[in-house]
Amino acid sequence: MQSSSQSDRQSLTAIFLVALIATGVVAPMFFLGNASGHDFQPHVAGWMDAAAQWREGILFPRWAQWANSGFGEPRFIFYPPGSWMLGAALGSVLPWKVVPGAFVWLTLIIAGISMWKFAGQWLSPTQAIAAALFFAANPYHLSLIFYRSAFAELLASAFFPLMLLGTFGVLRHGWRRLPLLAFAFAAIWLSNAPAGVIATYSLALSLTVSCIVSRTIRPLFLGGLSMLAGFGAAAFYLIPAWWEQRWVQIAQLVSTAYDPEKNFLFTRVNEPEFIQFNWKISAVALGLMLFTGLGIALSFRQRRAWPKVWWTLTVLSVACATLMLPPSAWLWRHLPKLRFLQFPWRWLLVLSFAFAFFGAAAGSLKRRVIWWAILITAICVTGTTIGGDTSWSSEDVSSVVEDISAGQGYEGIEGFEPLTAKVNELDDELPLVGEYDLSSGDIDEPPEAQVNTMKWSAESKVFDVKSDEPVTLALKLLNYPAWQVQVDGNSLVSST
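Now predict its structure.
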């Protein structure tokens, strides 16, 4: 039994070291600017849009007002709220230029503490702290931060240890751990939809393995209830997104270059820029597979101490590695919603967890120092390589601020456009309320009608028009079924 003071010291040590490693990861941003990865602009712009709507009194935004150069899009209906609400909250109290770094720093601390809580159930205090540090700074997290700026996926990854902690807690303690599992499962879905799909399959596989190891179906029953509770907690996002996906071009998310079968490790059958990044992330995947495999082998004797954990993480690791390779193509075609992951290497989210746990657990006490030194060296070399290949910028955030302030808006997200929209043909110079010429199809400032715009916010467009002749008006707004159009109090059907 540990004394209370000893437990407190270990907790403070873990929190301090996790915060230190998180600071080390974001430290280059102090000098080089933000890491401007693939998804940097969409995330930052969405945070700014949400924060502005909060100032308008819209507490839960649905329509992204400034997307598609000011024509808008239903982004906040389909993009899980966790990341954009956290980004908007940070932007409400901090300068925007430091918000990306603050987001990463805070998320890595959550990830590290979550892993520390999980590992502490089975490993020694020192090993649990090591697992937390390995997980917070694992190579896939570094890729998410510096290569991709995938803030939402990083946030989802931070909750993954809590989901497995809840899973094994349900197996050991029954109903008492059901709320934790439901919370973590919902938190992942509310952070990132692809990660939610990964979490669902991972949880189902974990429960199945536990049933086999323990020779009872009780884990499936309790885990299934937890999963249903998690879906229920996230229903305020999931149900509208499911219902309204028929109104947008959602199929583009898995078309052409985003087809999973074109994005297996070391692919050669995609567009050049996709292939270039694919080979980088494939190298990261290969390293994680190698070290995870070694960790599994070195911890083989310990499987008797925690058989459910060892077998579950081993099976998860094998499944992740398999799903990143071409022989798994049949599964990608037939398993429900799996194709919406787009990139098979996203399963590194799970593999990186196993990497950190087995990395901390593996080896005898005498060999552990050498093993950990090798892991730390590998992580540092990977981080240095990724950092040297990162696009750094001190101007990206300010340019988004300037574009929004100037009314130019920002690019929308492919797949979230309404069905009838052709965003590539939009004219960003159009007036908010223009006159549509039925013969030519041109839209210009009304030559004779007087337009008085009384309110133009994200969810309400109110204006008054005075004209001696009938006019057809065109708004700088994408047509979407959820919009309700009224003229003099009478409802009308809008068209594109």
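The chain has two domains: 13-393, 423-492.
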